[in-house]
Amino acid sequence: MSQPPALDSARSLLEDVASLLDHHPAQKDPKPGKPPGPGYGPLLRAGTALCYTAWEVYVEEALLESVSWLLDNRSPEDLPEALRTWVADQNGDPWAFVGDSWRAAVLGLVRSRLEGDAQGRFGFNTASVSGVEGLYNQVLGYSPLRAIRWQKKSNAAVRKDISTLVEVRGEIVHRGTTPGGLSLGGVRSWADFIRRLTEKFDAGLVEFRTGIPSGSKK
Questions:
Q1: Does 126 reside within a domain?
Q2: Closest by alpha carbon to 128, among 171, 155, 161, 153?
Q3: pTM of model > 0.85
Q4: Percentage of the chain surpassing pLDDT 90?
Q5: Helix axes 184-210 and 6-23, enclosed angle (nearest 10)
């Protein structure tokens, strides 16, 4: 069975966030004189961590998806120059492989870049602004993140929010604490932010791959 599209993977994780918030015993924020329900802190931490996970999983799967599409739809000489250069630097001259073996070799190199290889090299550790842009610029020569914006959300604000989410997730994962300003409404806002972010990012990748602006008809 083929792997689901990257955007579907992100949406599935965000649905898990919504389900967690809707069905957990501590599904309401505390009020004066009314303390939070049992498990309120863990619920906030789990929901926020899942929002970040949806973003990181999307970033990794979308890169593999994009490279796979390019390999299936472009001849070696028509691939992005950055991809050709990066692959050649990693593995000599894979374009000289017999038959279609070069396609599998290139995808294997991208997977190693994301997951790390047997020598302990590479590996994508954090979906920060610099991490995502560095990864995509290195492999594709293009990062959709540089232009993402939407109504009442500038590109600078998008980048700032990504950095904040990475920081909050780090506090949760590495310290096991619940950031003081976090609430159920805040977790829902993070989920909505990641939904919009991945949709815009995906539209940028589709346009990059096909050369057709998002929303345009052939």
A1: yes
A2: 161
A3: yes
A4: 57
A5: 170
